[in-house]
Amino acid sequence: MTFVCYPKCTTCKKAQKWLDDNGKSYEVRDIKENNPTYEELKSWYEKSGLPLKRFFNTSGLLYKSMALKDKLPAMSEEEQLKLLATDGMLVKRPILVSGDTVLVGFKEAEWEKL
């Protein structure tokens, strides 16, 4: 399993504690230092079954400063994925990748299904 997170994020800290408390083994990947590539994001998006908007950190400062709420609806999926690949701070976190399962954000009930 790969745990993609931002170490200063409180939600990521909660998710990591949950993984540890449940004895899950995982590899940590700091999203700020090692931003997901376009190819990774495309693969995760396809496996997740989620709308692409769920991959955006809509509460983040960068998202707000770029006025993406207004711009995203007019952008193609490819343009959105390329934009996400430019900066890890645009990406919703944590992301847990385990084989064909991709979880975005931390909802304990979803993670328990792993």
TrEMBL record:
Per its UniProt record, what SUPFAM superfamilies does this chain match?
Thioredoxin-like (SSF52833)
Source organism superkingdom: Bacteria
Q: Name one Pfam family in it.
A: ArsC
The record's comment on protein family reads: Belongs to the ArsC family.
The protein's name in its UniProt record? Transcriptional regulator, Spx/MgsR family
**What organism does the record attribute this protein to?**
Ruminococcus albus 8
